[in-house]
From TrEMBL:
UniProt keyword Iron, yes or no: yes
Pfam families: 2OG-FeII_Oxy (PF03171), DIOX_N (PF14226)
Protein name: Fe2OG dioxygenase domain-containing protein
Stated family: Belongs to the iron/ascorbate-dependent oxidoreductase family.
Highest taxon in the source lineage: Eukaryota
Coiled-coil intervals: 424-454
Molecular-function GO terms, alphabetical: metal ion binding; oxidoreductase activity, acting on paired donors, with incorporation or reduction of molecular oxygen
Cross-referenced InterPro entries: DIOX_N (IPR026992), IPNS-like_FE2OG_OXY (IPR044861), IPNS-like_sf (IPR027443), Iron_ascorbate_oxido_reductase (IPR050231), Oxoglu/Fe-dep_dioxygenase_dom (IPR005123)
Metal-binding among keywords: yes
Fe2OG dioxygenase domain residues: 197-299
Species per Swiss-Prot/TrEMBL record: Ilex paraguariensis
Keywords: Coiled coil, Iron, Metal-binding, Oxidoreductase
């Protein structure tokens, strides 16, 4: 069977044939939250649970939960009805197509992730019906619209099953939000206020069998833009996360009645990078089709997302500028529909200037040309930080025309060292890579001194 080239991934994104399954992915038991025999829950056990969740968010950016309180029947029923829906003819499904008037909700099969088409079809619905959202991504356009779910005639039980499911998973979402809040040292309900008019939605994902599972992806590598995702996957398997320690794609083996929880971009920003949104993707299967059902737990459209005041001080400056969630989401939606030449909007575009300055150092050819080792190192650093670097390429090289900043070289170098140290903390793998390239860190540090002595 011929496969349309729009589905084919660049070689570096193609899934490897040998699947890696890690056995240390955090599996967290929430049974302690249920108060048995109406007695108070065990305070020590809760403290331990909060600690476990904090560690999982920090080290992995995701975890699985069991004994979460969502009745298995609700999930199973929804999976069955989702299969029924996707088994209908295209013509039938397209009756509830997402279109220009209802751009977020209903059926569609043309989503692109990172500009390559996903091998999937989906049905989207909001949890609150209607849900208020900005009409346009344009910052000055203040028009809002009430988005209403589109329900197909068939299967008739789809609506009811979706609504039952949403109700139950929502309870879990609030529990997790509270646990995460406490793991950041904040009161349990600290984040709840953002959810008064929340914009959470549920997606039914269907990945048909694919004749070229080594060349295409169900969903290409991406980070979820919202706050928290609660994912149910069936027993076929295919969900993979990029492990923070070494950048390896790890397959998360389906665990009976477990949910996969991942921290999204908003929690990364709220936590000022203490917790990082993890990159993940869905791989395909040549024989079986697969269903997955993410619940995206997102705040009100008017939420201004920024690092939480309680988590910043002189030592931990806010790393992001505030942004409006509704506008961010609208911009994302606009790009996902079509193949564009530009990169989609990312939270890295809102990183604050002190971090930009660091990236500017990396792109300064003045520094790059001073020493071969440094050049390699800086190129690598530039690569590691490429999403940011793209967004603001200062190119202020030795009196070049575009020069807008005249930075002081010693300050720049210090900033660069800070950048490296930050990377060392955040991604040991990247640091190992850097280290390898310059032979060893010591050599690099000597080079830095050298550049300083040259007073560049
Ligand atoms: O299908 C999966 O396992 C992942 C889906 C996903 O990441 C998404 O829809 O955002
Ligand atoms: Fe996702």
């Amino acid at each position: 069977m011929e496969v349309d080239a729009v589905f084919i991934q660049a070689t570096k994104h193609c899934p490897k044939l040998a699947v890696v399954e890690a056995d240390d992915i955090p599996l967290i038991d929430l049974s302690v939250l249920k108060s048995h025999n109406s007695s108070e829950p065990d305070a020590t056990a809760i403290r331990l649970l909060i600690y476990e969740i904090g560690e999982a968010c920090k080290n992995w950016g995701f975890f699985q939960v069991i004994n979460h309180g969502v009745p298995f029947k609700r999930r199973k029923n929804l999976e069955i009805v989702a299969r029924k829906f996707f088994a209908m003819s295209k013509e039938e499904k397209k009756k509830v197509s997402r279109d220009d008037v209802i751009p977020f909700l209903g059926y569609y099969d043309t989503e692109h992730t990172k500009n390559v088409r996903d091998w999937k079809e989906v049905f989207d619905l909001t949890v609150e019906n209607p849900t208020l959202f900005p009409v346009s991504h344009e910052p000055d356009d203040k028009e809002l619209r009430e988005y209403i779910n589109q329900w197909p005639k068939n299967p008739p039980e789809l609506r009811e099953e979706c609504e039952h499911y949403a109700e139950e998973v929502q309870k879990l979402a609030y529990k997790l939000l509270e646990l995460i809040s406490m793991s950041l040292g904040l009161p349990a309900n600290h984040l709840n206020g953002f959810y008064n008019d929340h914009t959470s939605f549920i997606r039914l994902n269907h990945y048909p069998p694919c004749p070229v599972p080594h060349l295409a992806l169900g969903v290409g590598g991406h980070k979820d833009a919202g706050a928290l995702t609660i994912l149910a996957q069936d027993d076929v398997g295919g969900f993979e996360v990029k492990r923070k320690t070494d950048g390896e794609w790890i397959r998360v083996k389906p665990t009976h009645d477990a949910y996969i929880i991942n921290v999204g971009d908003i929690i990364q920003v709220w936590s000022n990078d203490r917790y990082e949104s993890v990159e993940h993707r869905a791989t395909l299967n040549s024989k079986k089709d697969r269903i997955s059902i993410p619940f995206f737990f997102n705040p009100a459209h008017y939420t201004i997302v920024e690092p939480l005041e309680e988590l910043i001080d002189d030592q931990n400056l806010a790393k992001y500028k505030p942004y409006n969630w509704g506008k961010f989401f609208a911009t994302r939606k606009r790009c996902n529909f079509q193949k564009l030449e530009v990169e989609n909007i990312q939270i890295s575009h809102f990183r604050r200037r002190q971090w930009k300055a660091v990236k500017a150092v990396c792109s300064s050819s003045l520094v790059q040309t001073t020493h071969k080792h440094n050049q390699q190192l800086l190129n690598l650093a530039l690569e590691l930080s490429s999403p940011d670097a793209q967004a603001f390429d200062f190119s202020f090289n030795t009196g070049g025309e575009k020069s807008t900043v005249k930075p002081q070289a010693p300050i720049k170098l210090e900033a660069f060292i800070l950048f490296l140290l930050d990377h060392r903390e955040r991604a040991k793998h990247d640091y190992e890579q850097l280290k390898k390239t310059v032979d060893e860190l010591q050599a690099f540090e000597q080079n830095v001194k050298l550049v300083k002595e040259l007073k560049l």
